[in-house]
Amino acid sequence: MKQKTFFSRLLGLGCLFIHVGLFAQKEPVSFQNLGFWKANGKNNWQVAGQVSADLNKKEFMSTQPGQGILVNLPEPQNRANLISGKEYGDMDVEFDFMMASHSNSGFYLQGRYEVQLMDSWGVQNPSTGDCGGIYKRRKFIPQEYLYEGHAPRVNACLAPGLWQHMEISFQAPKFDAQGNKISSAKVLFIKLNGFILHENVELSGPTGGPISEKEVARGPIMIQGDHGAVAFKNLKIKDFDGQIASLSPVNYQVFYGKFKSPKDFIHKKPNAIGTQTQLAWNASKSNDEFATIFTANLNVTKAGKHNMELISAGNYTLHVNGQMIASDTLYSNRRKKNVEVELPTGSSTVKITYYKADADMSPMLGFGIEGPNFRMVNFQHPSSTLILGNGPSDIILLDATKPSLLRSFVDIQQNGARKRLVHSVNVGNPAHLHYTYDLDNGAIAQIWKGNFLDTTPMWDNRGDGSSRPRGPVLSLGSSPLLVKNADLEKDSDSMSETAGFKIGGYEVDEQELPTFEYEIFGSQVRDEIRVMENKYLQRTLSIKKPSADASLKVVSAKSIQSLGNDLYAIDGQSYYIQATQASIRTTATGQVLVLPLAEKITYSILW
């Protein structure tokens, strides 16, 4: 059960820095009109105010007038790709998109490298052609031959008609002065709905269907528009068009002694002086009871706000152009601090004073900077973040290769705050659809796709009894499902105590799937939750003596929209509830979806 990952081995060796445009703000692309784009054929693109897709109609999407959403509604004689007027090199981009049922599109970086957009809902083993895949390259020998391509690690695709979120960090190919390619394009990462699908994938050349087979330093965005209905909103782009910052050779002074603050050594004669090509704490020959003052010139190509980041085991101060902008005088181990600094174009003087008196933590020092036109660059030598002591414990992961149950504490987000469930069951399924059941309220507290559980907090050393989902979570809250009619519009998180709630445990069938039992308002309830078609959860409640003055409060949300055919879109088309005889009621903070009580009730959660 205990599994050592590559990531945990890295942590055992040092501190891992991951920076991909967190400081620099992405610029939004207006969808008030099509002015940002040009079509390479008849224009089948339009701007809309709202869109929706029918789960049961292939490639169908309906629109409502307005602005803010880019929509492709292809017709047999009207199918064109959309190309940006601006060209990009290194870039970070994010957007929300919606797929119609069985629809197909693609987002082309530089018009040459396709990230597939596809209705892949429920696909168990995604390929390069599924949503989030990096599409294959092609040759003609003499017929078309496809090769390479990169499938996503996991199928993170949501149901048709739901808004999905994609983030891409891209590094353009590089060329020498003669135009020869010296490095290939690279996808630094792709995230879909919070899942990391790809990391550091080198692209040897254009994928199928590019605007050109010739690679370039800068190229346009292209969105495929000839395969099916698709919609986009909230497109944001960061163009890293500048040269990264540089740090001149680093001068250092080393002082040995057990110092409590810089005033204890700054007027002393240094025990050693020298120059480094990169920042490294081990200018000192001791692992503790030392201080080092580093000075260097930092060069940036564009004036503006820059994000500086320091991480240390010990204490430090940071001065820029003679002004102290950061300090950490507290006892700290691997404490990280980010500070915003206004820098002029050209050279600035940087001074880092690092001192460490205690032997119970390993020395470490890291320094990086991110600017308005370049990604985070780290200046430390790899040895400067080397942790000499023992690394953290191995990560302990639990997979659900068959239906799996694990009792544990679980922390959920509810109304913006963390809440710990102390009586809960995590239920995993090989279809990669999982949920946490709150035994104190008879509620599905959260659901998620992907891998099952990280049980490190539960089983590492003494542990704290908790486990964590290994995928982005959709929180459903932990309120009781059955509610008095008079309380339907209240926003109380838990009314199980006043309802006489009593959990009866759960029984497991031959497939090792649980059915939960409890009593509330004098009614006996059997709660059966099953994965259907490897796509969604279906919940069936069998109720003995259903209370006449209670109802089923299926979900509380900020917004609930009826789409017809017993389908309801929750919180801006984040997920669906499918239920017959449901009604929507308004509360002080939003809306609730309500079902009347009956001896048997079935509804589904689709996401």
TrEMBL record:
Q: What InterPro entries does UniProt report for this protein, alphabetically?
A: AL/BT2_dom
Please report the stretch or stretches of sequence annotated as the 3-keto-alpha-glucoside-1,2-lyase/3-keto-2-hydroxy-glucal hydratase domain: 40-238
Query: Among its keywords, does the record have Signal?
Result: yes
Q: Name one Pfam family in it.
A: 3keto-disac_hyd
- Keywords linked to the UniProt accession: Signal
Give the range the annotation lists for the signal sequence.
1-24
Q: What is this protein called?
A: DUF1080 domain-containing protein
